[in-house]
Prior knowledge:
alpha/beta, D-Maltodextrin-Binding Protein, domain 2, 2 domains, 12 helices, globular
Amino acid sequence: xxxxxxxxxxxxxxxxxxxxxxxxxxxxxxxxxxxxxxxxxxxxxxxxxxxxxxxxxxxxxxxxxxxxxxxxxxxxxxxxxxxxxxxxxxxxxxxxxxxxxxxxxxxxxxxxxxxxxxxxxxxxxxxxxxxxxxxxxxxxxxxxxxxxxxxxxxxxxxxxxxxxxxxxxxxxxxxxxxxxxxxxxxxxxxxxxxxxxxxxxxxxxxxxxxxxxxxxxxxxxxxxxxxxxxxxxxxxxxxxxxxxxxxxxxxxxxxxxxxxxxxxxxxxxxxxxxxxxxxxxxxxxxxxxxxxxxxxxxxxxxxxxxxxxxxxxxxxxxxxxxxxx
Length: 325
């Protein structure tokens, strides 16, 4: 009887560890997007889910858990079982939340495993269509002569447009009135209608309005010019006078802390395959997004990058006193 018990225990241990990991995944994986459906992060996550499905040979389900600037969805994953079946796709907010929210329920980077950076995209400096300026130099004079009377819209505290706006104001030493909205759509609507003056918004959201002549564009925020047709002739802010200005919105893939190394390795391997998928690359490039092709798509490189971003944005937010709570 004792011998049988020992055999059963040994078999149980063997089947619950190496074989379980070897069989991963054997059921659908959920990717949590900490924002509402229909936005840029949601689209990117769904494109990525389709690209990951092929190497993982399993269904990938996207779960939109929005609210509180992405912190509710991130907390959901931080507290999930670390078995590789609940993942997170999050943007630059992963690095800014520690400074923006003084009562954050999770820690970055301590509560996550880093699987790899997915992409990055520039933002655009845009204005209402009636602004009397032809280039960035003229826009800068327009801002300087306004006496602080201009309004700068953003998609909400902690949004990419809010953070980019802070960086631009600091670079210009400008005093603009910040007007936060509940999302990009209402902010963009008021900009096009001339209710607000300036906005810094992701290229994925601004290009249709730029192409339609509904807003004016004065620069892109990356170090290199954008490649999509609508922006290829638009100078970077860096070459227009804001030296070394670089604000890009990026997305990364994460798992809960404690996820087994074998699963992390398998997910990272699948991510690298997904990032080379021609259809995925085509969809991203159509939105003006660059797919990551350097060591930031490794767990070590991804973590190092986010830690640097946490430090960078922490200084910007602290200097501006722009806290969300």
